[in-house]
Fold:
Amino acid sequence: MPVLVPETLEEACAALAARPGATLLAGGTDLMVGINAGRTRPDDVVMVGRLAELRGWVRDGDHVVLGAGVTYTECMAEPLASLSPVLAQAARSVGSPQIRNAGTLGGNLGTASPAGDGVTALVALGGTVRVRSTEGERDLDLATFVTGPRRTERRPDELIVSVRVPVADGPQEFLKLGTRNAMVIAVASVALVVEPGAVRLAMGSVGPGPVRATEAEAFAASVVDWTTGTAAAGAADEFGALAAAASRPIDDHRSSAAYRRRAIEILAKRAFLRSFSS
Amino acid sequence: MSTVTGRRDRRGVGTGAARPDGIPKVTGEFAYSSDLWEAGMLWGATLRSPHPSARIISIDTTAAVAMPGVRAVLTADDVPGRPTYGLEVPDQPVFASDVVRYVGEPIAAVAADHYDIARRAAAAIVVTYDVLDPLLDPEASLTAEPLHPDGNVFRHMVIRHGDPDAVGDPAAGDIVVEGTYEVGMQDQAPLGTESGLAKPTADGGVELRIGTQWLHVDRDQIAASLDLDPDLVQVELAGVGGAFGAREDVSLQIHLCLLAKRTGRPVKMIYGREESFLGHVHRHPARMWFRHTAKADGTLVKVEAKLLFDGGAYCSSSPAVLANATCFAGGPYKIPNAVVEGSAVRTNNPPCGAMRGFGSVQVCFGHEGQMDKLAAALGMDPVELRLKNALAPGDRLITGQRLDGAAPVAALIEAVAASPLPGEVDGPMGLPGGPGRTTQAGDVRRGVALAVGFKNLMFSEGYDDSAAAKIRLFDGVATVSTACAEVGQGFVTLVHQIVHEVLGDDIEVVLNTASTTDVGSAGSTSASRQTWMSGGAVKLAADDIKAQVDLDPDRAEYLADVVHQHTPTTPLDENGQGEPHVSFTFACHRAVVDVDPELGVLRLVDLVTSQEVGKILNPVQLLGQLEGGAAQGAGLALMEEIVLEGGHIKNPSFTDYLIPTSFDLPELRVAAIIEEPEPHLGAPFGAKGVGEAPTISSGAAVIAAIRAATGLELPRVPVRPSDIALSPDRTP
Structure:
């Protein structure tokens, strides 16, 4: 299989335009596993992992713009980790050090696995994702970018350039549950992002993509005393129950739907308790 | 651990001599069987059954044969000799021809110019099946229509010891506890997948380089199926990437040799990870019922057990695994009366066979669960109950065999029980969930428990077990030949140490590559037997050389050629009585777990062990076995399971077949290593094998600690988070 290694973003877009549907290779932590297992055999591969334009991040006022090639390891490092704690926490929960050195935020978003950790955190953060093709750039809403399991709004001729997310302005929590204490795919995860007057909760591995728990979010916004950052005792239980009700888990060899629903209830409750004292 | 640094001032036994293959393995220079290469070699691939049970209507290889680059496509019709193979009973077809009995059963093999061509050609073979309902329940297998001409029962056996009709006396305060336990299917999960390279030889034979555990038994099975004289089949050991029992059975050996003979060219095969899960046997899943009767003071009166082991589609080593399970079902305790009934049966699940601990691992979950239940029923401390009943030298086992060697069971338990308990964990990364941040200190409950186990060393029940070795001493160089398979256990280090110990530090020791051509069988690298058997053979050969040198120090060359056999054993009689085992090994573990009951996630906080070892030959390698064995045993309690659905393996990858990471295992602490030189002849310097004992009781200790933390019965391992979080018996 031919692997194209463009040296600039423009060359990469041109390569994609010439081969629409080519498979993008960034850190390779997902693609190479599929190839080695014989599940995937792409006809064309365009490697974007070395593109300088996709590397690094910048602060832009009350937002952070992260290149698609930013690795999990980079997400965990200060000062970025303090600007986006939920992303740093999600990044720390991924794989081993070697995987975190290779895997990228753009790759996680583009792969759009229902169990993706970075993508769940990004959906909770909200903001935009920038995609680019030879026809130009588009900014898409992160909250609706993932349309289904391994499906996104990215067109086959586009590649993800960056994401733009708000700088933390309140508590953030990422909790991920697996059947081993490290190097494990999420059985269930929650990403909680609090901003003054608003709460966003995204849940991983309990739907075709990250699932937003909108009722739980509205409940939290209404029940929290925003002047003190506190909530009444018992509010966390209700928040957890609403989150579980919004989850749409399935049974598979990793877990049962019933257990995933319970896990969401507990994880959401704990994320709430850690964010708001009673 | 401070007690095992060892001496490095000399090169003999007892020193922490470094592995000769250690640095190459760490730096990536070591050649594993997957690295084999020959000019002009072809690649092999295997077509496997997608069904757990089906009749084969037709096999059409036309499209595969016609593919450019394909050099051979073989099916059952192309096997010139015995169409089947098997370690104990040749009941497994080299290629299925009329029926398939499990998902992954080989049907055809292809050799082609390129690996991808071989794989695609295998996929292009058209097999028409009449799909049948699979028989997946071992219970149902006992009465179902036979899946195979040999029937569905691989072995049924009963041990009746003492008074089989003995009953407790409730009036005197005797206590009876019953329990049912279940063990899931564990995989050996060696990091190196099955791989090898075969090439035809000028004399009409074939030469195979392969990662295996027993060169000669591979040779004999290849020779039978290729209809060749065994001398025309040369098997040489290639670098082995772990074994743990997975390489005892034939996997690709016969296929490779058939392809090489057919094409006249070297052929290499390497299984991918998924194919590896399909291509080797697993640890038997088990369902076990126990009833223990004890006096009010805790003295055991009787143990009754019924064991059902699912052997999967073919026999492999099921009869021997079952024998171990029944013989050791009571645990290392004085048991005056026992009735233990065991069955290993055929189903359409994946075949099961050898894995580290070999039957003892499964029953340890049962007998230790029972001892804890009994202690609770008696209101007695579980450690005290075990000490009260602990086996001691001179005691009889439930087979009637008398313990004539070391049996420091009480000392092992006392050492572990006396080890200090750990404090609270340090920081959030040490809590259940680790980097997943699921759990805070207030969410956990701690549990502590201890378990003890034992098993036999070497082959049992009258098996004619031997190992050969040769040494040539010439010009200060001792060249050692043995067919012992080094699978990672460190035999290559021990050979140097043993020869140095006998012949002195000044000579040079060279170990030839293990092969069937220069020396007789070493027997299998399994059953904790090679330190004693091949190590013993090397020591006997070195002793022979030393005697020759002492007699006539002026010769240029000295030769020794020995075959070492252990003390003979006997078969079991119809009541399961006899002298079936040579020797035994004992170990004890105590586990401390923190459980988050709301989520069912947990963390093994501390694991401490003690073991009886005969004599320490290399303390660093000993510690390696204690750590690795404890990890593998704990893994079975915590997470390691092949998930089956309708006979299909749902998790054939290391993404989903989970083995413990450094976040799941604490550093193993060693409370005691007890050295009591093995009295039986041939054990080199009194040493015995140490590789399996650490696997037996670590998992039983872990699950017991989880029970202690949660108050739940948890009769099944591995325990799943949902077993705890969703248990109706859980108290908030």
